[in-house]
Amino acid sequence: MANKIKVIISDDQQEVRVPTGIRLLLRRACTAVLAQEKFKDPAEISVRFVDHDEIRYLNAQHRNKDDVTDVLSFPLGENGHYDTNLSTGAKVLGDIVIDLPRAAEQARLYGHTLQRELAFLTVHSMLHLLGYNHEQSGIDSVRMREKEEAVLAQLGLPRGHSYILEE
Question: pLDDT-based confidence at 1, cuts 50/70/90?
Fold first, then answer.
């Protein structure tokens, strides 16, 4: 039996409608990362959709970068140790904040669906919540990208996969 994984998803922006099925897809993405990484405990993750202004504010507050970005990860654990929700026993992994309008822009730019873009951003952030960091070395970046692509392929959303039909 799979471990209990709770993904709390909130939409705090007004610009882009959250597509049908996205909540299920993001839950599947979180679950797939935890399975790939052999994370055995019940887990809780928060995913929040925001707009450019909110993500810029959070990026400035927490990373001293006064820029819009596509996703921010706020891990609540360190070195594999996480706080436990005393009422559920779940490990609280942290928060994922996605700029939904930016994700929609990037999906158009890269020629794939918003679903694939949101799955990628979620998988990427989940790896950060589990302690991966691509900003320290090239090899860490390559290793993280390989893990991302493995999960996305498992979800049926491999690199270069597009639902856009050629005219």
Answer: very low
pTM over 0.70? The answer is yes
Give the span between the Cα atoms of 154 and 156, in whole angstroms.
5
DSSP state letters, 81-120: B-EE-TTT--EEEEEEEEEHHHHHHHHHHHTS-HHHHHHH
Domain regions of the chain by residue span: 5-154
HSE-CB for 125 with a 13 A CA cutoff: 29
Q: How far apart are CA 18 and CA 53, in angstroms?
A: 18
For the stretch 53-108, pLDDT in tens is 999 999 999 999 999 999 999 999 888 889 999 999 999 999 999 999 999 999 99
Tokens (6 digits) for 61? 């507050």
Q: Are 64 and 72 in contact (CB under 8 A)?
A: no
- Which residues partner with 78 through β-bridges? 81
Q: 43: burial class by Cβ within 10 Å (0-12, 13-18, 19+)? A: buried
What CATH number is given for 5-154 in this structure? 3.40.390.30
**How many helical (H) and strand (E) elements, i.e. helices and strands, does the chain have?**
5, 5
Handedness of CA 146, 152, 154, 157 (dihedral sign): negative
Instruction: Give the model confidence (pLDDT) of 14-46 as tens digits.
Output: 999 999 999 999 999 999 999 999 999 999 999
